[in-house]
Amino acid sequence: MRKDLRYGFRMLLKSPGFTLMAVLALALGIGANTAIFSVVNAVMLQKMPFENPDRLVMVWEQSPRTSRTNVANPVNFLEWQARNHSFERIAALVPFPVSLAGDGEPEQVDAMIVSDDFFQILGVKPIAGRWFTPEGDTRGKDNVVILSEGLWRRRYGADPNIIGRQIRVNSQSVTVVGVMPASFRFPFTKSELWRPMAIDRARAAQTGRYLQTVARLRDGATIPSAQADMNIIASQLQRERPDFNTKWGITVVDLREQVVGDVRTPLLVLLGAVGVVLLIACANVANLMLMRAAGRGREIAIRAALGAGGMRIARQLLVESTLLAALGGVLGLLAGIWAIDVLTTALPRTITYVNLKTIRIDATVFLFTLAVSLATGILFGLAPAFKAARTDVQESLKEGARSVAAGGSFSRGALVVAEVALSMMLLTGAGLLIRSFARLANVNPGFDAPHVLSMQIAAAGRFNTDQKFLDFCNQMLEKVRTVPGVEAAGTSHFLPLGRVIPGTGFWRADQPFPGHGSEPVTEVLVVMPGYFAAMNIPPIRGRVLTERDRAGAPFAVVVNQTLVLQFYPHEDPIGKRIYLQWNHPKETYEIVGVVGDVRQKSLDKDPKPGVFLSNLEAPTGPINLVVRTHGDPKQLASAIRSEIHSLDREIPIADVKTMDEYVSESVAAPRFNTILLGGFAVLALVLAAVGIFGVISYSVAQRTREIGVRRALGADTWGVMRLVIGQGMGLTAIGVAIGVAGAFGVTRLLQTLLFGVTPTDPATFAGVAAVLSAVAFLGSYLPARRASKVDPMAALRHE
Q1: What's the pLDDT tens digit per position in 729-747?
Q2: Pick from 594, 464, 480: nearest CA to 539
Q3: Residues 174, 198: contact at Cβ < 8 Å?
Q4: Is 570 helix (H, G, I), strand (E, B) or coil?
Q5: Of 308, 620, 649, 317, whose CA–CA distance to 470 is shortest?
Q6: I need a surface site. Which of 436, 450, 465, 711 has the fewest CB within 10 A?
Q7: Which of 670, 667, 731 is nearest to 698 (CA)?
Q8: Looking at the predicted structure, is the pLDDT value of residue 404 above 50?
Q9: Residues 644/453, Cβ–Cβ less than 8 Å
Q10: How many angstroms from the chain centroid is the CA of residue 658?
Q11: Residue 403: which pLDDT band, with cuts at 50, 70 and 90?
Q12: Which has the minimum average pLDDT: 184-188, 327-331, 397-401, 483-487?
């Protein structure tokens, strides 16, 4: 083996061009696999940073419309705690941003309100201080907080005396009782601060649907047994509290499944795509090895004549291929490290719950790269090795030293067909995603995004009465509208395309109440006058909300076109009244206007029924300011911020972004998938073109004498070119046919990633086949031109 290794190194050094081409092709494939696998490893394979994470579950309520929704109200949660027999503990949590003042500039941070069992369930201990205690769940004793290590270091300078220190959160003085480690992060959140949840059972019975729950299974309990247990509890609550539980069930979901459910398909698609790229690279290198082995026919024949057995010769060539793969693996690992840095900056927010520091080359990724490299070396080395092992010694020696073996054309052709077929499948998938993304990017969001600036005003806890809250909102809008360049300004408690939008039950006042759990659901936005003008949401009939829609005036509501089409299809809705289970469930709201549909959650989701309420009539936070400007909105951000701080210096201003940025972020995931898969497809196309070019060029070299004879007998230039191009296009046609058949099956895996395009879109299949054929034609044309210029006398004299 040592002799084989030394000899293999010498042979690779003697052919630097071949070695460089092969190593680069393998490095591209291995590097891409390493980078994508590092993300898959961090998201899907790594152990979650909790104690015994396989026993952690999320518990959701199940409505007639969805299997996973928040708990109806805290009373249900308390009943779950008291009655279940499957969980050691069950905790409630509510993500909620808070404002920090003092110790520097005011700041809004992501926070979470949690019940006292939350940290014990996850089993992550603080690096300083303690967890919450049951006393913290009591109103009046909930003025304590736990900080993240990052917040402790960033804002409080890693103060060693932080435990027991008073800080200001939402304008209240609270005591720090603990600091959680930097590695602690609950899925789907980026919380840096935690507050205890004080549940008043008497008041909780009337509150809305906002709690999420996490639980730890008891020893011996399984998810199916826990599901059966919670089904019994759901039935009991339906009988006892029908107002909140009619037709509602409970769903128990493994925490890992909850985390990876939405991203599993796109990640596996990308991992499969880079696997295809590596296979194409292997086919290319295998072809190079076959050509090289054919050129070494006399050397291999002499080895066999001197006593080397077939397996001994095969081993030597396999050692050389493994050395190539090892070199490609080392270079691919370096490329993978660079690619990981690029990937982590481009990851869409759908998987940003993963700590980006965990996406790295760890032991698992290194072993994966090592295994891929070794498997690659064996894969592309097998065909040349076994062909060489079957060398006919007498025939090879009779051919003479200058002859090149002409065998193996079938193997080389088969490898080209495989490359084309794999490229066809990968290009088709990329083409479908590109068409899908193009259609998604052209969807009308329902508002005019250019020239609109948004920012969140973190006023939570600053105002102890609704009137003070409204006074601030009015004064803020008055000041903002005086800034030069501002065209219109308004507020909404949620912004479009934020993927979160509150909803409530409603029904027509002129129809009977459909019953709890059966009433339709509408999205709800609470806005200040000026919002529709700032967002340029077009009115269709009636009027928009104005200053007269305030407390004391008749309850007014503006609805969207989807609600009208579904519930007033042949009627004029203006003046009609509806019930809303929102602030005043016993009062009716008059429909005063209809506006165009806005895609509130995402561009790929059809508009839902929606209503707009006046913030002057139903004061609701948080405050998201939207400002339409005449020019670049970012240039007015500083002036607008100054006007707001002139009212209150301690109010944090967060998420200063244009609505164009919100639109861009809403398509970040499909854009990420499209760019990556498209890049891999282009790489596959280039490798396939190189493979076709190499095989046809080699074939021309092999058939020099035949071409010379044809020219001597009168074949013209175009006749020779048709002969050569026909060979390349024939292989391509077979590969495209196989690839189309494979793509019909493979592209169905993309069903959930497509928008407005079917997995078997004929235009995409035809377009990809045309592109692949054009590239194959180019790869065949260049060798054909060279063949057409063969001098018949020189070819015959040379032979």
Answers
A1: 888 899 999 999 999 988 8
A2: 594
A3: no
A4: coil
A5: 620
A6: 465
A7: 731
A8: no
A9: no
A10: 22
A11: very low
A12: 397-401
Cα 133 versus chain centre, distance: 37
Q: Which residue has the higher pLDDT, 107 or 87?
A: 87
List all residues 6 or more positions away from 781 whose beta carbon is below 8 Å from its beta carbon: 721, 725
Residue 465's region, left for phi above 0, alpha for psi from -120 to 50, else beta, is beta
Residues 489, 490, 493, 499, Cα dihedral to 10°: -60
DSSP 94-135: EE--EEEESSSS-EEE-EEEE-TTHHHHHT---SEE----GG
Q: Whole-angstrom Cα distance, residue 731 to residue 258?
A: 46
Q: How far apart are CA 197 and CA 203, in angstroms?
A: 14
Which residues make Cβ contacts (< 8 Å) with residue 193, sequence separation at least 6?
98, 100, 109, 110, 111, 112, 145, 146, 147, 148, 151, 169
Residue 356, class by beta-carbon neighbours within 10 Å (0-12 exposed, 13-18 middle, 19+ buried)?
middle
Residue pair 330/31 in contact by the 8 Å Cβ criterion: no
Please give the helix or strand (H or E) that residue 726 lies within, else none.
helix 717-746
Residue 593: the pLDDT is: 95
- Is 91 in a helix, a strand, or coil? strand
Report the C-alpha gap between 456 and 657 in whole angstroms.
9
- Residue-level pLDDT at 572: 93
Q: What residues have CB less than 8 Å from 547, skipping those under 6 apart?
A: 529, 616
Is omega for the bond preceding 160 within 30 degrees of 0, making it cis? no
Name the 3-class secondary structure at 178.
Answer: strand
| Each residue's pLDDT tens digit, 260-300 | 877 788 888 888 898 888 888 888 887 777 777 666 666 76
Pairing between β-strand 577-580 and β-strand 212-217 as defined by DSSP bridges? unpaired
Name the most confidently modeled range: 159-168, 320-329, 718-727.
159-168
Residues, the chain, total?
A: 799
Q: Tell me the mean pLDDT in the region 451-467.
A: 84
Q: Encode pLDDT of 351-382 as tens digits.
A: 555 666 678 888 888 899 889 888 888 877 77
Upper half-sphere CA count for residue 487 (Cβ side, 13 Å): 15
CA-wise closest residue to 688 among 588, 757, 771:
771
- Token couple for 487: 């065209």
Q: Cβ(185)–Cβ(124) under 8 Å? A: no
The identity of residue 125, as a single letter, is K
Residue type, 247: K
Q: How far is CA 399 from each of CA 34, 80, 306, 405, 693, rounded to the nearest angstrom? A: 45, 86, 18, 8, 27
Distances (CA, A) of 90 to 83, 213, 214, 648, 788: 11, 7, 6, 40, 79
> Residue 162 and residue 160: Cα distance in Å, rounded?
6
How is residue 165 written in tokens? 């220190």
Q: Place 683 in a pLDDT band, splitting at 50, 70 and 90.
A: confident
Average pLDDT over residues 229-256: 84
In 160-263, alpha helices (H): 201-204, 223-240, 242-245, 255-260
- pLDDT at site 121: 94
